[in-house]
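Appendix B. Worked example

We walk through a single record from start to finish. Start with the input: the chain for GreA/GreB family elongation factor, Mycolicibacterium pallens, length 159.
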Amino acid sequence: MPTTPRVWISAQAHERLNQELGTLQFLFSAGVADDADENATAVRHAWATRIQQLHDLLIHAIVGEDPPNDGIAEPGMVVTVRYDATGDTDTFLLGVHSAEYADMAVYSIQSPLGAAIAGARAGQRRTYQLPNGPALAVTLLKAVPYGLHTADQNRPGAR
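Next comes the structure step. The output line below is what the pipeline stores for this chain.
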């Protein structure tokens, strides 16, 4: 039997997704859209699909529990990578792309870049394939738990 992977989301995202789920369930059960109208039927179908997605996500979520501060890139970590070809750096959260609204980019562990750096430690180089063809090499510079990153950003003088 296949198992659904656990996903990391922040407490804020968990709260927001629960609110969205409640709203959609209310609208769906209240029959706000008229079933006689083709557009309304499509809207109800979209609501049902989103309700199922949210339910599946929330039931498998690890909420706000930071992973260990071991420097390994995994969900719940804010990672900084260097694109080796250009030297440019990027910092982002490894999380659930559609769940997080953050002050930074969010990459899913299933995305090409997320999958490539999963399990990497600082200094490790990984290569991933872009959807449009070329392969890119990146080096993991740093990985810290989201909670520690957020605390550091909120310290006076941190910005």
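Two observations about the output. The longest helix spans residues 38-59. The chain has two domains: 7-63, 77-154.
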